[in-house]
Structures are given as structure tokens and as C-alpha cells.
Design a protein that fits this description.
The structure is a homodimer of 371-residue chains. Chain A contains 13 helices and ten strands. The first copy, chain A, has 371 residues and is an alpha+beta fold. The first copy, chain A, folds into three domains: 75 residues, Winged helix-like DNA-binding domain superfamily/Winged helix DNA-binding domain (Arc Repressor Mutant, subunit A); 177 residues, Beta-Lactamase; 94 residues, Enolase-like, domain 1 (2-Layer Sandwich), CATH 3.30.390. In chain A, the strands form three sheets. A five-stranded antiparallel sheet of chain A has the order 7-3-10-9-8, with helices on both faces. In chain A, strands 4-5-6 form a three-stranded antiparallel sheet. A two-stranded antiparallel ribbon of chain A has the order 1-2. In chain A, α5 packs across α13. The longest helix of chain A has 20 residues. Chain A starts with 9 loop residues before the first helix and ends in a 6-residue tail after the last helix. Chains A and B meet through β4, β5, β6 and α11 of A and β4, β5, β6 and α11 of B. The structure holds a DNA duplex (30 and 30 nucleotides).
Chain lengths: 371, 371
Amino acid sequence: MPKEPSRLDERKRTILRAVVDEYVEHAEPVGSRSLVERYSLNLSSASVRSTLAELEQLGYLEQPHTSAGRVPTDRGYRIYIDELMELEPLPEETKEHIREQLRESIDEIPELLRQASGLLSQETGYVSLALQPRVASSVLRQIKLLMIEPGRVLVVLVLSAGVVRDRIVRIPDVLDQHQLQRIAAAIEQQLAGCQLRDISFIMMQLAAADSQVPESLLNQVLFETWTAIQQADQLAAYVDGMPNLLRHREFHSISRARDVVSALSSDGLLTGLMEPLRPAVGSSGHGGADAGALAERSAAVPWMVRIGQELQQEGLEDCSFVTTTYHLPEQLVGSIGVVGPRRMAYSRVISHISFVRQTIDHLLTWRSSRS
Amino acid sequence: MPKEPSRLDERKRTILRAVVDEYVEHAEPVGSRSLVERYSLNLSSASVRSTLAELEQLGYLEQPHTSAGRVPTDRGYRIYIDELMELEPLPEETKEHIREQLRESIDEIPELLRQASGLLSQETGYVSLALQPRVASSVLRQIKLLMIEPGRVLVVLVLSAGVVRDRIVRIPDVLDQHQLQRIAAAIEQQLAGCQLRDISFIMMQLAAADSQVPESLLNQVLFETWTAIQQADQLAAYVDGMPNLLRHREFHSISRARDVVSALSSDGLLTGLMEPLRPAVGSSGHGGADAGALAERSAAVPWMVRIGQELQQEGLEDCSFVTTTYHLPEQLVGSIGVVGPRRMAYSRVISHISFVRQTIDHLLTWRSSRS
DNA sequence: ATTGGCACTCTTTGAACTCGAGTGCCAGAG
DNA sequence: CTCTGGCACTCGAGTTCAAAGAGTGCCAAT
């Protein structure tokens, strides 16, 4: 469906935008009076009031109670983000700072993500997340078995895009480094180029069959190695800026605060919230009427915002997620995001997250060409 | 100084213990009435009152205001921990559960720590911490350089006690795997057995001098490798159970909550709070009068409790830390701990943390002997 | 030494009340 | 037809006041 330009007339748009801006800044229901004062609408408060009433009718605003000002609804934020807000470009010095910080940790992806997460939470004042790329679909390039001490071996996997995973496993301690090397070489020879998810235990047995190691020993090694490969896809999430969150009004009530802290402490939950956007890189095809949450103004800005209810998570009704996808070479993708109160400075957050993503993509793509 | 048996008579001891127990459980100032009701002191509330007054006089208790019950002071908790509380042994099934969980992740120390931390926070209902061992004083056993792709190399360090660290570095991309292997072998040959902190860049240059690699290239590799070695000592802290904390009364006030969350999010701060106990394994010799915080009932229980003010940390006045030290072979040590409100179920926490520590020590010591 | 009794203190709770921000609606002006 | 000033109305926030209740300290009696 091509962007419906929304049937709001100019005045409604202006006023809705003003309400959201005002509410985001002051965290208090906004009334007609302050709007007239602070935004140069050439209108009386009475006229504004009637417009506000209409916007409420349309479901973009609501009143906590009669005789209070208006507050945006999820729908209000949604349209604000999709059509009303203005994305201001980042000041050049901020950009430079981000570039510099990220450049420093370009060699290690975990470090890069930690760094990115730190930057985002610091710059936006909310909580930030960074998820490692899933590597199940990436390809095995190298595999090494290093004997740490008799009976313990470090399995080193080199995957697509130069991603490295390793893990210590236990093996029969009669094996020596040479035998291990032969096994590793055999596996590498046969399975290099396979996607991790496609590697079965059987394939490994076939690959290593002629490595001149007694079968029962061999099988133990292979099994442990195979397990290590399977576990390479583990999710790791970096969360930064927790304390920021507790600064915002909506979390002064502890129970809300706890809900959010819990959510952010639960890897599983985070993953669930970040994952869904993975497939949808190009855009389109998002869920049902109201749940449809994919927000892009064009295919060129593939960030996604999920607001309050849209998250469909008990306890996170007062939160929003802004997420985006970074790219490593060879189709590897991961996501980074910002979590904050629903009343979030969306434009600010989106500007930052977009730039961080862009910088990561850029750095990782050109990584090999810098000395 | 040999344990002064404290000049409190039996009644005072009983009552102080009761006050602490009661307060820990109910989080409300405890009055003479409820003490008489709930604990079988064969006394009237009036007598209890006078004892309470004396305990207050001695600085073990205080009143939030006249006409409120009593609350333990830091000193009150201190003596409670040092002399009054009863450590109940863990039920066998809990022990078994802990053993089982830890045994699963014995091969990877980070995983083990994550696991331990998870167990502690879950079992105690507070926040738990686990710090990786510092490896600056550990010894280099093996070093490998694995070429990930041209220009990028994985430096793998095997240290004392089979601890593994690795890191990707960037090197001139004209070098090939064989040259790297020669360099690594040369370094390993010469420097195996050295403590990491003693390894200087010069030593590495000397060690690798005859590896038949052009000097300027060699130096770049050596420098990156040396950096990787230096950075092997990075601190990593695992924190678990944050949301637990917000359940407790003392953190319903957000500002307190934020202080704690901030502290727990700051690696530096955590480290500072956990480190000081490292040297004092055997016991004795702790600081000045009131600050002296090392609490052990005998050399066999080397845990340490730091209560409120004793932490000397702005914002953590309402918290306590219980920490202890786990041991890897070859003198490597790290620490695990629990953070909670000052009003903490100390005996419960100490029982758990002691057992976890003991289990870790045991598992790691005998790691190599299990198949 | 212990205890029952009593006066006193200080917080908590809730009701009643005022204040003010904000609304909806309407009649009249442009 | 649109906009505006005016007005009555609503509802939460804050204040005040009194009563309730928990707990204390002290003392005289056992």
C-alpha cells in the first residue's frame, strides 16, 4: 500500500506535532493555552481547543481525565513519527565523535557493539541495546583445535565476514595436538563453505573419517566440536544506560520501573523484541491493522519504531523501541536499538541510531581495506 | 587482636538478634510489643523497652523518630553478623541443584561465572556479581597467532590454570600463516612461564628476533600482540538479578534505586568494591576502628561483609555487599558477591555464597581429573 | 530486677475544603 | 462559515485539621 498521505489538514498536523513536541519535553498533559503561547499558531486557545477535541475524536490524543490537557496516544505517536516529525541532522562534531569512537574498536565485533551501545545511551539519554549478529546462516571458513592442556581443547571457528567464535571443550586426554590438527584440517577441508546450520554430526563424521584416529576417540572429539559449532549462534546482548531510564517520569512508580528493568535483563525477551525486524530489511508486509509497526519514510531509512501497546509486552506499555539493522559483509546482520519511555524524543533517537548504524555498516564494509 | 567476645550480656544479645531478624523480615521499625509476642522472651514489654534503650545507647540501634520502633544501625548489623546470627546449612537439595548447575559450565570460566551469578541472585533474591579473575599475575603458557583473513590475526593466549584469552588484531597483510607461526613459536619458546605483567615489548622483540621476518613487519606484529597480552587482564563483571533489588522497600524511592542501579552498571565502581578483599585471604589486619569491615568468624569462612557506610560510597548507604573469593589453580583468584539492601538476610546470603564459592573451588581444582 | 500503668510524642490516615488549570459550549463578530 | 471571548463546569492537587494508633520513657509498686 502506497503511503496514504493521511487525511489530516494542515492545522491538525501542526497542532498534533506541537502537542507531541510539548509533551515529550515537559512530560505533562498539554493544554490549549500553553500551545498558543509557545508555538506561534495564530489562533485563539478556543480554536485550538476545538482542534484538540477533533484530534481526540480521531484517536490521536487522549485526556487522562476531564479538565486535564491532552496526551498523545500510541496512534498519535505513530503518525507523528511517520509523517510529522522533522529529523534534524546530527551536528558534525557529534558525528565525528561517533565515528572516532567506533573506529577504535572495529576489529572486535563484541567490542564494537559495546561501544555503539555506550554511545547511543550516552547521546540519547535512554537505554540502548546491541545484539550480536546471528551466525547460524553464516559459513564456516576455518576451524582449529588447540590443545589447552591434556583433555581440554579450544575450538576456534572462523566464520563469514571474519567473525570468530571459540569455546573450550573436553576431550579424551590421550589425544595429542597432531591428531587434533589432522581432525581439524579434515573437517575444514570438507566443510569449509557450509552454513553452520547445515552442518550435521554425520557430515563431520564423514569428513574426518580418514584421520587415522581410533573411532571412539574420534567420535568424542567430533561430538564436542559439533556442539561447539551449534552453540556458536548464541545470542549476546549489550545493554547500556539503565540508570538513564529511571530519570524519566513514567518510571517513578517503581512497579513500572521494575517491569522495564526486568524486560531489559531478560535476554530472551530482548531478542524477541529485536528479532522480528530482521527479515524485513526491504520493508513492507507488516502485520495486522493496528499492530503494523514497521515505520519507514522510505526504503532508505530502515529503522523501526514500536510504540507502547505495539510491543505487545505486558509491562512495557509505557515504552518504545527504536531498532535498526547493521550489516556485516556476506549478509550477516545484527541489530541495535534504543529503549525509552513512550514519550521519547523520537527524532533525536532516530537520527542517532541511523547514523550509528550507517557508521558501523561503513566501517565493517571497508574494514579490510584500511591498513 | 583475638576476638573480643563483646561485652553484651545474654539478654542484650538475644534481643538485638531478635530485632535484626524481625526488621530484616518485615522492613519496619520493631517495637517492644512485637518482640515479646513473636519471640519467646520471658519478659514484659517494659523490660524489653529498657534493654532496647540500652542497645540504642550503645549504638546498635536507632529510632527513626521518637515513638517509632528501633532499627539496627550499621554497628548493629556488624555485631549481628560477627557474633549473633546463626548460619543455617543449606538444604541438601539446594546444594545438589547448585552443584549440578555449576558442573555443567565448568569448562568455560565466563560461563561458570554467569551461571554462579545467576544461581546466587535467584537463590537469595538479591543482586549478584561475579568478577573474572585478574590474570596480570598469571603465567603465559601458550601463544598462537591464527590468520583470520589477510591482515587480521587472532591472538590466542593460554595462561595459568588453562585460562584462555583471545583478541583480534590487525597486522600487515603481506605476512602469511607460516611466518606468524614462527613468530608465535619463538615467543612461546622464550616467554612461556613469564607472568603477563612482566612481559615487556623489548622482551618480545628479543624473543622473536631470529624469526626471519623483516624487522619493520615483525615489529608491527609484535606490538599488536603485546597489546593483546596487556589487555588480557581486562575486568569482566557479570551482574544478575537487578530487578530483584527494586522489590525491596528501601528502593521504592527511585532516587535510591537509581543510585544503586548506577553503581551496579559501573564496572569501575564494582571492581573497586570487590577488589579490596583480594589480598586478605588469610584474614586479619583490617583498617581503622569503624571502617574495619572484614568479617570472619574463623579463617575457615573467608567471606567479607560491607554494610552501608562501610562501603564509603555515596549513594550506597542503604546497601550491603557480601563478597568472597574463589580460587583457580595456580593462585588465580576472582570474586563473587551479593549486593542487597542493608536490611539483608545475611545468614541466608552468606550460606549460599559460601557454598557457591566452595563448589567453584572444588570443581576448578579437580577439573582436570574428571573425564 | 521486673512489671503494669500512664502520659507523651510523633506519624499516618482520611475527610473536608480550596485553588486552579483545563475543558466544552455558545453567542456574537468578522 | 470560521473564529473568538466568555462562562460554567469538572476534577485533581494541595492544605488543613482532627482523630487514631503505635511506640516510647518513666515511675511507683511488687
